[in-house]
Each structure stands twice: as structure tokens, then as C-alpha cells.
Amino acid sequence: MSVKINNKFLDGFVNEADVASMTKRAYSAQELLKSKKGPGNDYIGWVELPENYDKDEFARIKIAAEKIKKSCDILVVIGIGGSYLGARAAIEFVKSPLYNNLKKDTPDIYFAGNTISTTALTELLSICEGKDICLNVISKSGTTTEPAIAFRVFKALLNEKYGEQGARERIFVTTDKERGTLKQFSDEAGYETFVVPDDVGGRYSVLTAVGLLPIACAGIDIEAMMKGAYDSMKACELSDSEKNPALSYAIYRNVLLEAGKSTEILVGYEPYLLMLNEWWKQLYGESEGKEHKGIFPASVIFSTDLHSLGQYIQDGKRNLFETVIDVKKSCEDFIIPNDPRNVDGLNFISGEALSHVNSTAMLATLIAHNDGGVPNIVVEVKDKSAYTFGYLVYFFEYACAISGYILGVNPFDQPGVEAYKKNMFALLGKPGYEGMRAELEKRALNK
Amino acid sequence: MSVKINNKFLDGFVNEADVASMTKRAYSAQELLKSKKGPGNDYIGWVELPENYDKDEFARIKIAAEKIKKSCDILVVIGIGGSYLGARAAIEFVKSPLYNNLKKDTPDIYFAGNTISTTALTELLSICEGKDICLNVISKSGTTTEPAIAFRVFKALLNEKYGEQGARERIFVTTDKERGTLKQFSDEAGYETFVVPDDVGGRYSVLTAVGLLPIACAGIDIEAMMKGAYDSMKACELSDSEKNPALSYAIYRNVLLEAGKSTEILVGYEPYLLMLNEWWKQLYGESEGKEHKGIFPASVIFSTDLHSLGQYIQDGKRNLFETVIDVKKSCEDFIIPNDPRNVDGLNFISGEALSHVNSTAMLATLIAHNDGGVPNIVVEVKDKSAYTFGYLVYFFEYACAISGYILGVNPFDQPGVEAYKKNMFALLGKPGYEGMRAELEKRALNK
Fold it and tell me: Which of residues 97-116 of B touch A (CB under 8 A)?
């Protein structure tokens, strides 16, 4: 298995009775998910996706990626939330967080439309100057503020640079399969389109065209990724928590939550895990953070952050637990050179592989944090391949659905995300929000 | 003032009596700090630093920065924790998170030695191929594992590339002023050295040579930064919480903590604030997270993360509050173009400045999160200048010291950071740790 749960660093923090009781609840949650009758059941298309995905579209994605790779220096990917984090997590995991700075035969990939920052937009425009550009805009509705603004700007740039005819060959749109103005406009303009499925929510969409097109453009093997997800699906189907890592993870984190551990810190020991952490935070935070419930998702990269949040984790408030991603093999070994002078006193590790020092730091930290009162779930991950990324992503998705059902919430909606949007539309004078506007302006004036 | 506290989004969450009572405690904490007799009083050199800093060394820093700017394509900065986060936060804040990808007349700056990752090290080495390199290694003792390994590797690279004579002109060492093997070795090797002061802890060190040399190499005006810190110091000296934003911030966050809000999320609306968030997390987490006390520091960048952690913040467990960095002016305005077709329905904001939409999103979110039960402290910040960065950094440092004294901890030590290090040294076979090793290996084997 590419993903396994090691529960040894939970010793003394969870007891058998609580685990047994939670296991029953996890089995019920799994049955509910399988029955397709649970809350949010119109958004469970991701469950069978690794088997049922649209093979024709998948082939088109590969062709489009080849075309993009040949025709540009920079691919600008426009999207926010689930239309941003998954692809970026994959590229950083399989390739590198320094992907854009490394020598390579694939285009640089920049993400836009995930902020309303003027500095971010103008800086990206300056980076694009004199470069050949392709665009992948990802938006189900086409009306989400952040990506819509970015698409206005970059579409105009491409039209100016290449003419409408030329731009048409460089703009790729991932959107609703038939509804929505973006789909209609794309068809008229002659842009190639890909589908955001109706039954897959944004945070579960990385293995659809939403994630796959940009991922393929980075030169990542999306066939292998889907195979990993498929094998993960097969493991997650099992109704045995000993053999099913997703059930196991969901069980332990809920036992910990009920024991008062209300913050979960996802821990990686490699900088390439940073955006996976961010993707995970959306997946779990948005799925569970409702009805005043849920585990608060935080994240760190060690050993970097052992020199930052390490102190708090070791000795601060004891309301947290860690989930550690333990990647067994990242890359070729690097041997620590000897220093005849031993200026730094480190000759006791001369000749050792750096990865050995890193995994020893992990073991040392697991023991230290256990001793400090922090339970640790360890997710053992084979490597940083595309296959493993697909496996890991599906594992987390499945565990999240089970976990949400255990918690008693709908893990597939996100009603709270609308609150700020409604206020924003009203304050900006969007037609239809006139009623709210006066009241909000009054409140704002009093501030 | 470059930094002001807006408390309007605390309405209904804090009451006058609690604030009055906490204000008294803040004044006592301030007196304790000023008396120089509080816990950790051997590490309060940062308090008067903006006035007392070593002017001769400051001049040398500027000269060294000019030399580095002229002689390399890439400056590799080796350091971890406080010897990493401050400089990176400054460069991203004043310049850009895309600093290395933007056209500029200053060197690219990469940070190394802040991780034990093999991928990170080998990727950086490949980026350095064929480039002219300078090195700034920052380590008080010279024996911290992560930077020491990186220094071994990059020192060897420079010696090989330029010869020992040539490398000498390219290696700059920031370390203890007299003790430690790194200082001794640097003097022998002929490297120029700068000082990590004895009375300034890592997380308070950004305004010393630790931060200033790399910051100056990015072309940032460090004189202006020190002037900002100086003016901030003058504001923070005031014994009036109405006029002193640091007292005000310390008071509100402790009132909220005592009301059960045990997680603080630092919120920015610009990607250039991301590393400031990380710097802040070390400052507060390491200063307060001890004796099973302290506020857990988390962070987000909105609107990006409104599509990620937004749901949780709006509707999840109500044990959190937000502190929002509201930068009033980031850069020149960017006007949102009109779209005659109005495909995205956004023509109601055509012709508006993007910054107006961003600040409206902030206001909308403040109101929405208040309505959801989340108190918000707003830190109003004038702009993203070097002056303001210095001002803001000193403000946060001072507020942290006050806050730690209110909490009743020593805000200047970090005893918990040693726990994992000791285990790691023992497991790696460092001389002197033989006793621990057998026991830890036995524990590890049982895992």
C-alpha cells in the first residue's frame, strides 16, 4: 500500500474502548456513504471517479497539455479554492515548490485569480512581459469574483498579443458542462472547454479536469496519478479499519477530538508538502467546520517550523494533535560531506545520508512531542510519485467524508463561504443586493 | 502613526470591565519590561536596539550589501528560525513574494539551511549551477544542525568554484561576536563577520545584522527600516494604551484568551504578507507557548483562504479570533476593465480600483465573521514601505513581550525547542548523548 497509518505514537493518548466505539461509528459512516443516501449525496461523484472518469475528456486533456507545453513559456492558471490548491499541491509534490525556478522542458506555471491583490496581479503581468502565454481558466459558474477579474485581464492581454484568432488557440476553459455564461461564451469564442462535474465539489476536484490539465502541463504523469487514486479507492472500499487507512485515520482523529484535541496540525518534513498541507486545510476545514463543530486544521513544515511553532507544540496548550506525513523515499541520497576541521561539531554525521538525518529528526520529534503530551498519527507514504499523489489525495478525501459523517455534518457543502460574498456584493453595489447595502453601509460607517 | 489598532470589530465580544482590568495588567507588564528585572531580562537588547544599534557595523552591512549586489547572481542565505524568517518576511513585504522571478538589478536570494530536506538542497544546488554566488551564513553558535550542513555544502562549492581566496570575498558570516567555533574559523579563513548580539534572541533579531544584511542585498532601504523601528519604539514607550498600539494589541488578545479564544489567526489580504505571518507565528508561538499556556498562532491570506479556511472561521468551533493586517496602500491602482459582453456579470465593478474591491472584501469579511461569532482585532498599517516594516516589526515585538508578561511566562526563552534536538542528537550518535541513545532506540524499536 502506498499509504499506511502508524498508530504507535498514539500510545497512552487513546484507549481501546474509545477506538472500538468510534470504529463502529466509522463503519456506519462508511455504509451511509456507500448507500449514497447521506447528507450532500448529490456531491459524491468523487467516490467512483477513479473508475468512472470521462476517458475521452482525459485523452483531450493530454492532447491539450502537449499543445500548451509546445506553445508557451508561461501557463497562467486562473482559479480559486478547489480550482487552485489541488493542482498547485500536485505540482509542488511531484515536481517541486521551486518548479518555476528549475531548468525544465515544460512551461512555468503561475496561479492567478486566487486573490484580489493588486500587487500580485501587476507583478504577474510584469513577469509575463515578452513571454508566450497560455491560459487555463477554471470556474464552474464563471462569475466568481477573483478568477473573473483575472480572466478579464489575461483574456484582454492575449487578444491584444495574439489577436482573437491566436488567443483562441491559447485559452483553455474548465467550467460547467452546459450551464453558465462562461461555457456559452467559450463555445462562441472557440475556446476548448473541459468539465467541472456537477457532482464533485471544488475541494474534491483535483482528479478531474480542474486539476489534471495544469498538472499534465507540468509534465506529470496523470495516468499514473489516476491509477494511484484507483488503487486507493479499492483500499478505501474495504470495511475493515485494519486494512483501510482512511477509516483508521478518520477513527483516530475523531477519538482525539472527543478527548478535547480540537486543533490538528498536519506535519511534513519536506518543503514540497507545503501546498498539500494547504489543500488538506481546505478539504477538512471546509468539510467539517460548520454548526460550531470540527477540528481546526493547521499545518507546519519541519524541521523549519520546529524553530518556530515547535516550542508551542512541545509545551503550549494541550488541545492539539499532529498528523505527520512520513514520505519514505523522496529522491536520491545526498551524503553529508566530512569537514576535517569539524568546525560545526557535526562529524558524527559525516558520510550519512541527509535523508537519514531528516527521518531521525522526525522520530526524535515524534518521541519529544509524545513526551510533551501531543498525540501523533503517522501517515506513511511511499514516495513523491504521481501515483502516490493520486493515492494520497483519494485517501484524504475518503477519510474526510467518513470523518464528516461521524461528526454528523454534511461534508460536501460550504454554506459559510457565502456570508462574506453576500456582504461584499452588497457593499460593491451588485444589482440584487440593494436591500442589504444600506444596512451594511450603516454598520460600516459606525466602525 | 504607521500602525494603529482599530477595535470596532471587537464590539460585543469584549466588555469594558475586562479591558480595564487587563489594561492595568498591561501597565504592570510594561513597567516590568522597563525595569529590566522581568523574566528573561538578559534578552531584552531588542528594546532599545533602534536607538542603540552599532552604527559602525550598520555602515559595514551597507558596504557588504553593495559588494554582494555587484558580485553575484544569487545570494544564498543560510539560517533557520529567527535567522531565516525575518529577512524573508521583509523581502516579501517590501519587495515581493515573487522577488526571485521579477526583473531587478539585485541578486536572486534563496534561503537554505532551514530544513533537512534532500530535495530542497539538491534543487537549490541545481539552480546555482553556472551562476555567481555569494553566501551569508547566520548562526549564533555555528553548530545548529540545519544551517551547519548547508554551510558545509555551499562553502565547499564556493571553494571549488572560486578557490579559497575567491570564496573569501563571497562568504559573509553573521555569528557570535567572539565565542563559538564559527567566529574563530571565520576569522582564520578571512570571512567578514557580523554580530548576533548576546542580548537579542533569534525571533527578535530581524533588525540586527541577522536580518539587515540579506534585506539590504535585496535593495531595501535599511536606514528607513531602522527609522520606522525607532518611531515605533517611541510610540511603544508610552504608558497609555490609547496612544500605544502595542499595549492595545496585547490587552485585547489577552482579554480574548481569557474569554476562551485560544487560537489567533493572523489575517492578511495580500500575498506579500504570508512570510510576515510566518515570522509572527514564531515570535508569538515561541514566546508564549510554554507551561501549557499561550494562544495558538495560525495564519491565512484572504481572499485566497476564504475559499479554504473561510468556512471553518465562519461556522466552526468558536474558540478563535482574528487579527487582521489592513495595509492601507500597497501600490499604484489597477483599474478593472469593462467587458461589453459582461460574461461574468461583474460590470458593476468595471472602472473600480482593484484595491477598492480588496478593501471591500475585507470589510465584508470583518462583518461576516463578527456575525459568525468571531472577534477581530484590526491592525491598520500605512503601506508596504521599509519604514513601515520596521515600525510593524517593533510593534509586534513589543506587544509580544507585554503579552508574555501578562500571561506570566518568560517571553524570551524557548526551552521546548531543545527536546527534539536532544533526542535527535542521541539517535544520531552525537558524542555526549550515549546514555539517552539506548533508551530512545529501545522506544523507537517498539514503535
Answer: 98, 100-103, 114-116
Chain B residue with minimum CA distance to A339 = B152
pLDDT at B447: 66
- Cβ of B309 within 8 Å of Cβ of A282? The answer is yes
Sign of the Cα pseudo-torsion (A242, A246, A247, A252, in order): positive
The C-alpha cell that represents A322 in the structure block = 499532529
Phi, psi for B156 (deg, rounded to 5): -60, -40
Q: pTM higher than 0.95 for the full model? A: yes
Q: Which residues fall within 8 angstroms of residue A6, CB to CB, at 6 or more apart?
A: A326, A377, A378, A379, A380, B447
Is B421 noted as a catalytic residue in this protein?
yes
Give ipTM to 2 decimals: 0.97
Which tens digit of pLDDT belongs to each residue from B363-378? 999 999 999 999 999 9
DSSP letter string, A139-188: -SSS--HHHHHHHHHHHHHHHHHHHHHHHHTTEEEEE-SS-SHHHHHHHH
Is-contact A190 A168, C-beta < 8 A?
Answer: yes
| A48 DSSP assignment | S
Residue A447 has pLDDT above 70, yes or no: no
Inter-chain contacts counted by CB atoms under 8 A, chains A and B: 428
All residues of chain B having their beta carbon less than 8 Å from the beta carbon of residue A372 are 416, 419
Split at pLDDT 50, 70, 90, the class of A161 is: very high
Q: Which residues contact A20 (CB under 8 A, 6 or more apart)?
A: none
| Predicted local distance difference test score (pLDDT) of residue A118 | 98
B189 contacts in A (CB within 8 Å)?
none
Q: Is there a catalytic annotation at residue B307?
A: yes
Q: Collect all residues of chain B within an 8 Å Cβ-Cβ radius of residue A384.
A: 119
CA nearest to A287, candidates A53, A33, A88, A52: A33
Nearest to A317 among B185, B294, B360 (CB): B294
What pLDDT, in 10s, does the model give residues A333-361? 999 999 999 999 999 999 999 999 999 99
pLDDT at A312 over 70: yes
- Whether B114 sits inside 8 A of A339 (CB atoms) is no
Chain A residue closest in CA terms to B84: A304
| DSSP result, A94-146 | II-TTGGGS--SS-EEEEESS---HHHHHHHHHHHTTS-EEEEEE-SSS--HH
Spatial separation of the C-alpha atoms in residues B402 and B391, rounded to whole Å: 17
Residues of B (402-431) whose Cβ lies below 8 Å from A? 414-417, 419-424, 426-431
Cα–Cα distance measured from residue A253 to residue A396, given in angstroms and rounded to the nearest whole number: 12
